[in-house]
Amino acid sequence: MRKILILFLMCLMGASAKAQCNFRNTAFKSGEYLSYNLYFNWKFVWIKVGTASMNTVQSHYNGKQAYRSSLITRGNSKADRFFVLRDTLLCYSTLDLAPLYYHKGAHEGDRYYTDEVFYSYPEGRCHVRQHQINHKGESKWQQHTYSECVFDMLNIFLRARSFNPSNWKKGYTVNFSIVDGDSKEDAMLKYNGKKIIKADNGHSYRTLQVSYMEKEDGKYKRIVDFFISDDSNHVPVRLDMFLRFGSAKAYMSGLQGVRSALTSMVK
Question: What is the SS3 string spanning the chain?
Answer without folding.
Answer: CHHHHHHHHHHHHHHHHHHCCCCCCCCCCCCEEEEEEEEEEECCEEEEEEEEEEEEEEEEECCEEEEEEEEEEEECHHHHHHCCEEEEEEEEECCCCCEEEEEEEEEECCEEEEEEEEEECHHHCEEEEEEEECCCCCEEEEEEEECCCEECHHHHHHHHCCCCCCCCCCCCEEEEEEECCCCEEEEEEEEEEEEEEECCCCCEEEEEEEEEEEEECCEEEEEEEEEEECCCCCCEEEEEEEECCEEEEEEEEEEECCCCCCCCEEC
